[in-house]
Amino acid sequence: MATPRKSTSKRQPSSERSTPTPTPRSGTDALSRGRGGEPQHQAGGDHPVMTTAQGIPVPDNQNSLRPSPRGPTLLEDFILREKITHFDHERIPERIVHARGSAAHGYFELTRSLSKHTTAKVLTEKGKRTPVFCRFSTVAGGAGSVDTPRDVRGFAVKFYTDEGNWDLVGNNIPVFFIQDAMKFPDLIHAVKMEPDRGWPQAGSAHDTFWDFVSQMPESLHMVTWAMSDRAIPRSLRMIEGFGIHTFRLVDADGNSTFVKFHWRPKLGLQSTLWDEALKLQAADNDFHRRDLWEAIDRGDFPEWELAVQLFTEEDAERFPFDHLDPTKLIPEELVPLTVIGRMVLDRNPDNVFAETEQVAYCPANIVPGIDFSNDPLLQGRLFSYLDTQLKRLGGPNFHQIPVNAPKCPFAHHQRDGHMQMEVPKGRVAYEPQTLDPEGPRASAARGFRSFAERVEDDGRKGRVRAGSFADHYSQARMFYRSQSAIEQQHIADALTFELSKVGTPHVREAVVGHLRHVDEDLAQQVADGLGLDALPMAPAPAAPVLDLAPSPALRIIERMKDTLKGRSVAILVAEGSDGTQLKALKRGVEKAGAHVTVVAPKLRIRLADGKPLDADAQLAGTPSVMFDAVASVLDPDEAAKLARDPGAVDWFRDAFHHFKAIAACGGTRKHLFAAARIKADAGVFEPENVGAFVEGAKGRFWKRGAKPR
Ligand code: HDE
C-alpha cells in the first residue's frame, strides 16, 4: 500500500534543514520533507528532470518508499529496484589479461603511401586522417591494480578506416614469451596471482612464473626484455609499440610483401628506475593513466610515428631466424624502418566504461590489402579475441557499441542476439535472394581477399614445431649485448630481485642456468646476487647459440630525447619563498616545453612579499619520483625547518639517487642536502641559472652512482 505523499519538489532552505530539530517518529510531514535525507547542495537553474531508465520522472532520489517513516521498504518501489538492479549489474567480467587500461581517441595521418605494396586505403591515401581509439594496458594485474608494476604494456589501436575497422593489437615489446597459442593459457596461469594464495597481484616475481620460464627456453628472449627498463616505463606517452607478428601487405595483383609494424613515440623512450617504479606505486596507483589524461587535457597531445619494416620471402630466407617465430625480432640494422605516418591522441574518452572498458580489439579485424602470416601465435589469437569478447561483452552484438562500431557504411544479414540495438527493416535477411534489390551482396572486386599462399604439397598434418623455431637464446643474447652498461646492470638487478622472490631453489637455479646462454657474466651476477655457491649447469640448447651482431637501436638510455617537451618538473616552495625567482624559474622551464608543478608543505603559502600563493600539490603526497627533475626556491629558515621533515629530505635524496637534475637554492644545499647526505655534483644547478638547469633536466646524471661491473 502506498503512503500518500506531499510533493518534494519544493526544497527547504538549507538553514532550515541544518536546524537540529528532533526527528518525528511518525507522520507524513517528516516523510515528505525527507528530513536528514535531503542533499545539501541542489543544482540551480534549468536542469533536466531525473527519470528512471524507462523515462518516468523521479520525485525523490533520497528516500525509498515505505508505509511509515520507520517502517519496512515496499517491494512496490520500482524506482529503488530499478536503480539497485542496474547498479548490481554494473560490472562486467574484466579482461583475463590486459584488464587495467587507459585509452584515448585520436587520428592516424598517412605521410607516405605504401601503394606499391598494398591496396589498403588507410596505407595508401597520403595525407588522409583516419580516426583511431588507442588503449594502453598492463598485462598481469586486475583492473583495480596499479599502473607501474614491472610488466609488458599493451598498445592496441583501432583504426576506423573507410574499408572497415583495422585493429593493430600490439605490445611495447617486439617479441612474445611463447611461439604457439597452445601455451598462452599456461603462460597466463603462471604469471597471474597463484591460485591457492591469491598473490602477487600484477607481478611476475613469484615461483609459478619463473617455474614456467625455466621449463620454456623459448621465453628467454622476452624475459630479458621484461627484465629491462622497457617494462617500467616513465609514461605511456614514452613507450614504443609493436605489432610483433609478421603480417602481409597485398597489392592489386595479389602479390605480397611481409611487414612488421612499429610505433615510435615522438617524445622518445623513457623509463623509470625500479626504485622509482616501486615508490610510484605507493605515491600514485594511477600514475600512468593520470599522466596520459592530463597531458591530453592540457593540449599536450602525445604522438607516435608509425614505421614499417618491409621484406620479401627471399629476404626472409636469408635471416638467421624464422620471421614467423614471434619470439624473434628483425633488427633495424637488417631491415630498416620506414616511417609512413603519425598517430596523435587528442581526446580523452568521455566515459571510461563505455569506451575504454567496452572497446573490443581483435587481431582478426583487418582490411583488404593487409593479411595474416602463418605465425602460430597470431593464428591462435585470430580465434581468441572474438571468443573472449562474446563472454565479456555479453553477446554477439558488441560491434554495435559506439566505440566498436565501424565509421564506414556496413551492411550484412546478421540478426537478433542479445542487446540488438539496430532495427533492421524488410523481410530479407539472407542471400542469395531476389526480393530485395537493395540487399547487400558480396563483391569480388572490393571484398577482402586472402593472399593466395602456396600451401606445401607434401605437408603432413601433425602437432609439430618447425625446426627453424629451435633457437631460443641467440636473440636474447643479442638483446642483452646490445644494451648500454647501465641497462645491462638494470637487467641483472631485475633478475636478482625477481628470482629472490622465488621460494623454490631448483627454479632459481634452473633460470640462472638458462641465463648462461644469454651472457655468462649476467648469469654470474645474478648467481652472486642470489648467493649461489656455483653457477648451475646450462641446459643443452636445442640449436647452436649464435653471436649475432648487436643492435644499438634496442637501447633506451641513448634514445632518450634531448628535450624537456612532455616532461614534468617540480619546484618546491614554502613560506617566505622568493616569488620573483619562482616565476623566472617556472617560466624558463615551461618555455622549454615541460609541465611545472609547484609543490609546498601547505596548499596555500605566503611568499616573501606577503602575497599568497596556491601550490599545485602538497609535499606530503607528492614525492619527487613523480617528476623528471626538481628545483627549490626556499627561504633559508624554512629550508632548515624542512630538513627535520623526512618527506622533504627524501624528496631530494630520491631525486639525487634517481640521477635527476636538481636546481637547489642556498637553503636547500645547506640544510636539506646535509640532511640527505648529498654532495652537489654536475647535476646540481643554481635556480637562478635556468638555462643550465633546463639543459641538465633533459637527461639523467648516470655517473652519479653507477655501480662498478
Ligand atoms: Fe592478447 N589477448 N593474446 N596478446 N592482447 C587479449 O582479448 C591472447 C598476445 C594484447 O586493450 C584478450 O579482449 C592469446 C600477443 C593486447 O583491450 C584475449 C594470445 C600480443 C590486449 C587475448 C595472445 C597481445 C590483449 C583479453 C596468444 C601482442 C588488450 C581480453 C596466442 C602482439 C587489448 C581481450 C585491449 C588482450 C588472447 C598474445 C596483445 C584473452 C590467446 C602476442 C594489447 O583474447
Short description:
This protein is α/β, with parallel strands linked by helices.
Mean pLDDT figure:
93
The value of Rg in angstroms is 30 Å
Briefly, what CATH class of the largest domain? Mainly Beta
The portion of residues assigned to helices is: 25-40%
What is the annotated CATH architecture of the largest domain? Beta Barrel
CATH homologous superfamily title of the largest domain = Catalase core domain
Q: Mind explaining what this structure looks like?
A:
- Keywords: Heme, Hydrogen peroxide, Iron, Metal-binding, Oxidoreductase, Peroxidase.
- Belongs to the catalase family. HPII subfamily.
- InterPro entries: Catalase, Catalase_AS, Catalase_clade2, Catalase_clade2_helical, Catalase_core, Catalase_haem_BS, Catalase_immune_responsive, Catalase_large_C.
- Pfam families: Catalase (PF00199), Catalase-rel (PF06628), Catalase_C (PF18011).
- This protein has helices spanning 14-18, 28-33, 78-88, 184-191, 207-215, 220-226, 274-283, 287-297, 313-318, 352-357, 376-392, 474-482, 485-500, 505-518, 520-530, 579-591, 636-642, 646-657, 666-676, 690-697; strands at residues 101-110, 129-138, 153-161, 164-171, 241-242, 247-250, 256-265, 303-311, 338-347, 370-371, 568-573, 595-600, 604-606, 612-614, 617-618, 629-633, 662-663, 684-685.
- The chain is an alpha/beta fold and 709 residues long.
- It folds into 3 domains: 101-400, Catalase HpII,  Chain A, domain 1 (Beta Barrel), CATH 2.40.180.10; 474-557, Hemocyanin, N-terminal domain (Up-down Bundle); 564-704, 3-Layer(aba) Sandwich (Rossmann fold).
- Strands 1, 2, 3, 4, 5, 6, 7, 8, 9 and 10 form a 10-stranded antiparallel β-sheet that branches.
- α5 (207-215) crosses α14, α6 (220-226) runs parallel beside α12 (474-482) and α16 crosses α20 (690-697).
- CIS-heme D hydroxychlorin gamma-spirolactone 17R, 18S is lined by residues 95-98, 101, 135, 137, 154, 156, 169-171, 176, 181, 184, 244, 326, 359-361, 377, 380-381, 384-385, 388-389.
